[in-house]
Structure formats: C-alpha cells, structure tokens
Amino acid sequence: MFSLRPRDGYPQHNMIGGHEGIGGILMAQDESLISDPVAARYLAHDCRHCHACLHDLPERCPSQRDFPRDHPGTYQDLGDYAAALCSFAAASKTLRKLNSSPEDVVLISGIAGAIGNLAGQIARNVYKTKVIGVDLPEKQPGLGPRNSRCYDAFVPVNRDSEGSTSFIEGLSRACSDLRGPGVSPTMADGVIVTAGSTAPYTNPIQYLREGGAIFCVGVPERGGEVSFSIAEVVEKGIRVQGTLMGGWEESYRVIQYIRSALLSPVVTRIELRDVLSYMQRFVSYENTGKIVVKTLPLRNQQPGSQLFFLAFA
Q1: How many CB atoms lie within 10 A of CB 74?
Q2: DSSP-derived secondary structure letter, 113
Q3: Alcohol dehydrogenase-like C-terminal domain location, by residue (predicted)?
Q4: Alpha carbon distances (Å) from 162 to 135, 206, 218
C-alpha cells in the first residue's frame, strides 16, 4: 500500500506508510536471523546521548531516524502488541511522569480514544489510581466490557459543554464520590488530555486541586491554543507538561503490561473498503479505541498472522 507524502521531508513518491509494525525476518544474508521478531515504530533511532535524549525526550533528538519518513514503513501487525510501539507508549510515559498514587484522582479527557483508554487502564491497573473518564456519551458504549478497566467514574461531555458549570459540578461530585466520606471536597489531582479537539483545553486548571498537573497529549487540528490565568497557575502550584511519545523502554514496558493481562487494548478491526468512512469518523470524533484495517495475508506468512494498516483515534 503506497501513499503520497503528508508533508515536506517525506518521500515524494511510492511512500510505504505505517509506523507500528511487528513481524518476523523471512530473508537475511545471515540465516541465523530468520524468524527473529522485528518491530518498527515511528521513532526508529535516537542517539541516546544528546540533551533531548538524556532528558527523556527522544522524539526531539536531532539525529533521529523515523518510519516512514527516513525508512519504508510497514503494515505488519501481530495482535495488540504493535500499538505498544507508539500510542500506548505515549500513555505509559504520561502516567510515569504524572507519578500518581492510589489516593489520587486523575481525569482523562478522551477516555474512549486510542491513547485515552490505555491511559485509563495503566492508571487504574498499574498505579492503582482512581480515574474519571471524560468523553462524548455516544462513544462510551464503544469501550464495551472494558469500561470497568478504563475508569471508575464516567462524566459525559457534549461538544460545547466542557468547562461549563454543569460539567464542573459533575466532575466535583465524581471526585468526592471516589475519595469517599470524611475527605474534604477537592478536584482532581491530575488532568490528562488525550482528545484531539480544542474543547478540553478550555481552562483545565479549574478541574484541578492545589499542586495538580496537566498533561497535554492530544494535539488539536492546526496546533490549537490554550489560555489560562498565570496567577492561578502560580497560586495553586500547577504543573503543565506535554508528552508526544515514549522511547523503546516505554514500548517494552507496555508490551509486558499486555502480556501480563494488566492491559487489554480496545481495538476495532475493519475491512479495507471501510477506510474512507472511518477516516471521516476521525474528523467527527466518532471512533473508539484503536482502528485496525485488515487486508490480505502475506505469502509465506506465519499461520494466524495477518496484514494490517493501523490508524489513530
């Protein structure tokens, strides 16, 4: 499957897209390598010794090499593990940076998305943190039986109601219910925005208690902007941080979470003919979890494995 370059810096013609793939070596000059597993992620190489790498920002490494910008991409995917190479690693890095405790309450905006559902599962099952999931009410059923794995309480939000008085009141009630009786009413300890729209960035400081943290993971179309009171940030001691993606160590960590059944990714597999309709659903924020487009098996492929094109929610 070939595509045109999305922006400058990518191949002009016959670009093989895809940046989340796991497969096996079928041909090699060194025959001892045949059948060894191979993984391809967007950030294929970073130097590990520059300022960015040493500060846990490998995606800013000036020497980085990427799939499919610098190398042909891949659509090979074995099960749920391939997504650990990018979006799920971003969720893991965000929770590691937040470093929440079992007594904390974390709000995750975009809980039904590809990154959001994994962020909720990591927060609950790894850090034992209480999670409030926020998303459009029509997307909640898409999580299916994994609802209880992703969040402890769900606060629905309409496209124009985030930041409204009714939404903040609902969030406050959810925080109080999760903290239990005998605890003074307070807002969330952390806010993780994984949604790709601008609405969740409408003064998210009002969702936080003193000393809370905002993690920006979702990036709205055309970049987006956020505006809030500097005085409130200073007075409440709020921390604001962005997270783009995790390194290889983060990917290995998430793979172990999946293998140990701590995480159960929400994946929707569709047919190739459905690509256009699901791409439109991305624009209107209707997709839930990870969207995987199933195509034909490869010749000489191991039994049970299939060829997939992966997209993001």
Answers
A1: 25
A2: B
A3: 114-257
A4: 10, 11, 16
DSSP state letters, 235-250? HHT-EEEE-----HHH
Neighbours of 269 (CB within 10 A): 11
> What's the rounded Cα separation, in Å, for the pair 82 and 309?
11
The alpha carbons of the chain give a radius of gyration, in whole angstroms, of 20
- What digits encode the pLDDT tens for the residues 49-70? 999 999 988 888 999 887 777 7
Question: What architecture does CATH give domain 87-242?
Answer: 3-Layer(aba) Sandwich (3.40)
- One-letter amino acid at 24 equals G
Alpha carbons 94 and 115: distance in angstroms, whole number: 10
**Three-class SS state of 156:** strand
Distance CA 15, CA 298 (A): 19
Which CATH architecture describes the domain 21-79+247-294?
Alpha-Beta Complex (3.90)
Q: Over the stretch 234-256, which tens digit does the pLDDT of each residue have?
A: 999 999 999 888 887 888 888 88
Token readout for 213 is 């943290």
User: What's the CA gap between 43 and 58, in Å, rounded?
Assistant: 8
Query: Are the C-beta atoms of residues 288 and 311 closer than 8 Å to each other?
Result: no
| Structure letter (DSSP) for residue 40 | E
Using H for helix, E for strand and C for coil, what is the string for 188-235? EEEEEECCCCCHHHECHHHHEEEEEEEEECCCCCCCCCCECCHHHHHH
Please give the residue that has the higher pLDDT: either 174 or 80.
174
Cβ neighbours of residue 312 under 8 Å, at least 6 residues apart?
87, 114, 282, 290, 291
Domain ranges of the chain: 21-79+247-294, 87-242
CB 172 within 8 A of CB 187: yes
Cα(278)–Cα(22) distance, rounded to whole angstroms?
23
List of residues 6+ apart from 236 with CB closer than 8 A: 205, 208, 209, 210, 211, 212
